[in-house]
Amino acid sequence: MNVRRRHISTVALTAVAALGFGTLTACSSDSAAAGDTGTFDVVASFYPMAFLAERIGGEHVHVTSLTQPGQEPHDLEISARQTAQLEEADAALYLKGLQPSVDEAIGQSPIATKIDAAELTALEEHGTEAGHGEEHGDGHEDEHGHDHDHEGGDPHIWLDPVKYAEVAEGVGKAFQKADPDHAADYRKNTATLVKDLEALDEKFRTGLANRTTDVFVTSHAAFGYLAERYGLTEEAISGLDPDTEPSGARVKELQKIAKDDGVTTVFYETLVSDKTAKTLAGDTGLKTDVLDPVEGITDHSRGEDYFQVMEANLTALRTALGAR
Q1: CB 208 within 8 A of CB 313
Q2: pLDDT score of 142
Q3: CB burial class (10 A; 0-12, 13-18, 19+) of residue 211?
Q4: DSSP character for 155?
Q5: How many CA atoms lie within 13 A of 199 on its CB side?
Q6: DSSP labels for 40-109?
Q7: Residue 204 has what pLDDT?
Q8: N or C: which end of the chain has fewer CB within 10 A?
Q9: How far apart are CA 194 and CA 168, in angstroms?
Q10: Contacts of 39 (CB under 8 A, 6+ apart)
Q11: 190-196, long-range: CB < 8 A, 24+ apart
């Protein structure tokens, strides 16, 4: 697709062909991938965006993720080589507000097609600054977060299957416009993906319908959209930024919430330290389990792709919330 082709050796071409298009985990995030493949080259900011590009693009796209598997996406700093990859790509798919260095690099890039997932669905505020404090039965407020550094709203839209489907539809249309020769396939692939996401939404609705509590405690406030979609209340130890340390007052508040609202489990995640979550659980006599924000797939993930990990999340939530 891209006319600004750089020379690539036969050995490199063979290596790219060997990688194939099967799994996102095999996509290099710092290799000579973008711009050299003879396909529609898409640079994605991190796993949820790369997954959309792969599912919608199918055999017609080559996807390069800027975030390595296992790397915490909030912490990503773009390298000079990755900046060069952007210049060689046909499209960039990202989520503005999640990774500042990506936002800056894409903003300065001459790339023709820039797809911001944050513009494809309505972002909402989840956190204390948003005024979303919900009253519990004992009168204390639900504080989801502290340091709200995501201007424009909570970026974790992929954890709500309905919003993720809206983004998928927008990405599909953008691909159709940018690569019209394969528009029919992009349209078909998008429809299939949306149908799968609708089925996932139904699994969450039915799976969480009969539960003994609505409240769950997480290590960071990634699950605001999911909680809102299914009538749950997320109580986060940290804010939208997973590196934020909770105050002593917040920890005491969470201990009280856990007791008052029948919380059984403190959830932690695979890409962030579980120390604080396990300390809170130990102090309150609660269990711990993984609730994965699906920001990247690793060997420690409970599944090989978005759908498998989300279904594992549903199983964990059902257990923690006493769903029957």
Answers
A1: no
A2: 39
A3: middle
A4: -
A5: 9
A6: EEEEESSHHHHHHHHHHHGGGEEEEESS-TTS-GGG----HHHHHHHHH-SEEEE-TTT-HHHHHHHHH-
A7: 98
A8: C
A9: 7
A10: 1, 59, 60, 61, 62
A11: 190/56, 192/55, 193/52, 193/55, 193/56, 193/165, 193/168, 194/165, 194/168, 194/169, 196/307
SS3 151: coil
φ/ψ of 265, rounded to 5, equals -140, 140
Q: Cβ(8)–Cβ(36) under 8 Å?
A: yes
Instruction: Name the token pair of 126.
Output: 């989840």
d(CA 238, CA 157): 18
The helix-helix angle for 183-207 and 306-321 (nearest 10°) equals 10
Distance from C-alpha of 314 to C-alpha of 204, rounded to nearest angstrom: 6
Which residues make Cβ contacts (< 8 Å) with residue 17, sequence separation at least 6? none
The residue among 29, 22, 39 whose CA lies nearest residue 181 is: 39
What per-residue confidence (pLDDT) applies to 194? Answer: 98
pLDDT at 243: 65
β-partners of residue 268 are 290
State residue 276's pLDDT score. 83
60, two tokens: 């017609």
pLDDT reported for residue 74: 85
Residue type, position 94, single letter: Y
> What phi and psi values does residue 220 have, to the nearest 5 degrees?
-145, 160
- pLDDT value, residue 221: 87
Give the start-end residues of each E strand in the chain.
Answer: 40-44, 61-65, 91-94, 113-116, 215-218, 233-236, 265-268, 287-290
d(CA 50, CA 168) in angstroms, rounded, equals 11
Contact 296/47 with Cβ under 8 angstroms?
Answer: yes
* Spans of the chain, pLDDT less than 50: 2-35, 128-150
Amino acid at 227: A
**How much is the pLDDT for 250?**
86
Tokens of 304: 């090989």
